[in-house]
Design brief:
With 337 residues, the chain is mainly α. It has three domains: 52 residues, no CATH class; 79 residues, DNA polymerase, domain 1 (Orthogonal Bundle), CATH 1.10.150; 142 residues, hpI Integrase, Chain A. It is 53% helix and 11% strand. The chain has 14 helices and six strands. Helix 12 packs across helix 14. The two termini are 55 Å apart.
Length: 337
């Protein structure tokens, strides 16, 4: 009995004395490769069908995840979203492209995604928005007939702790929010690095020249915090309705529960779970990344050196890691001419 010709993507099966051919589509369902039946190998239709399936598979295999990200960004679904949401989604899309963009869209596997989640994302909120946007990219690609995969299906969101920093687009959106109290609270929390209880108790009389005076409730520390121009400008545009800077209707002092609720609503509108205390960590990270020493950073936030040093160690590791890769790339280019 003659052997069937060896063809790319084709497997042959003999059953009850007959030869059957199946085409490996390159797609999977429930982890199993999907094979499509071909006409009988002896029939004239066999090579016509094989050529059509092969061309379709190879055309699809050339469609990268980076191309899928671009297609989603140009879609009506993306374009119709709020500007703040688009800014956050673009941030996630660039992360997807950098980490996974080279993959053909049908070749991405769960372990590829898991490696990014384990080593490439700084926080729970970044984890969740990465998965959400990757899921939207694949949904759009499925609607366009580019894939049948849904590689994020079995991943769960993770709960963020009280110290998770806000993703940069969510922070920047809060600083320009059209909701006056959200915008003011974000400025005070981020640019002073204080806890929400201390921020809610800040009074106009605490603003002295270019500084804000704070007595921390938790530690009793007394701090003179110099104001950035952005915070100064925000205070200048804020009407003085009462003794405290943050007020309710009628100028009464604001409770931290209301601010928590409003800031969480801001994050939720952008698809991210955030808490006010996250802005305290944003402040520490920004100060350290700007080149401030541990002592200088602690002078603003009132934290112990030990706590600030923990943040500094993480930042130094990332900075040194980037420097190491730059040196390795330079060495490789030199060796390869």
């Amino acid at each position: 009995m003659a052997k069937p010709p060896r063809l790319k993507y084709v497997k042959h099966v003999r059953a009850k004395g007959k030869l059957y051919a199946y085409f490996n589509t390159g797609e999977r369902k429930d982890g199993k490769v999907i094979y499509a039946p071909l006409p009988r190998p002896s029939s004239p239709e066999f090579f016509v069908a094989y050529g059509r399936m092969k061309a379709k598979r190879e055309k699809r295999a050339g469609y990268s995840l980076a191309a899928a990200c671009q297609a989603y960004e140009e879609s009506t679904d993306f374009v119709g979203k709020a500007d703040s949401t688009k800014k956050l989604y673009r941030y996630a899309l660039r992360t997807i492209e950098d980490a996974l963009g080279r993959f053909p869209i049908n070749d991405l596997r769960r372990d590829d995604i898991q490696r990014v989640l384990d080593h490439g994302l700084p926080s729970a909120s970044a984890h969740n928005i990465f998965l959400a946007v990757l899921g939207l990219v694949y949904r759009h690609a499925r609607r366009q007939g580019k894939t049948e995969l849904n590689p994020v299906r079995d991943f769960d969101k993770i709960k963020g702790g009280s110290h998770e920093p806000w993703p940069a687009p969510v922070l920047e959106a809060a600083l320009v929010s059209e909701h006056d109290r959200t915008r003011l609270a974000a400025h005070l929390l981020y640019f002073t690095g204080q806890r929400i209880g201390d921020v809610c108790k800040m009074q106009w009389s605490d603003v002295r020249g270019d500084e804000i005076f704070v007595t921390q409730q938790k530690t009793g520390k007394k701090l003179w915090i110099p104001m950035l121009a952005e915070l100064r400008a925000e205070l200048d545009r804020t009407p003085k309705r009462g003794m405290t800077i943050l007020t309710r209707e009628g100028g009464h002092p604001m409770t931290d529960q209301v601010i928590r609720k409003e800031l969480k609503a801001h994050g939720a509108a952008m698809g991210v779970e955030v808490v006010p205390h996250g802005l305290r960590k944003n402040a520490v990270i920004s100060l350290l990344e700007a080149g401030c020493s541990v002592a200088e950073t602690a002078a603003i936030t009132g934290q112990t050196y030990r706590i600030v040093e923990q943040y500094a160690a993480q930042i130094d590791q990332r900075r040194m890691g980037r420097a190491a890769i730059v040196k390795l790339e330079t060495k490789r280019k030199r060796e390869n001419g």
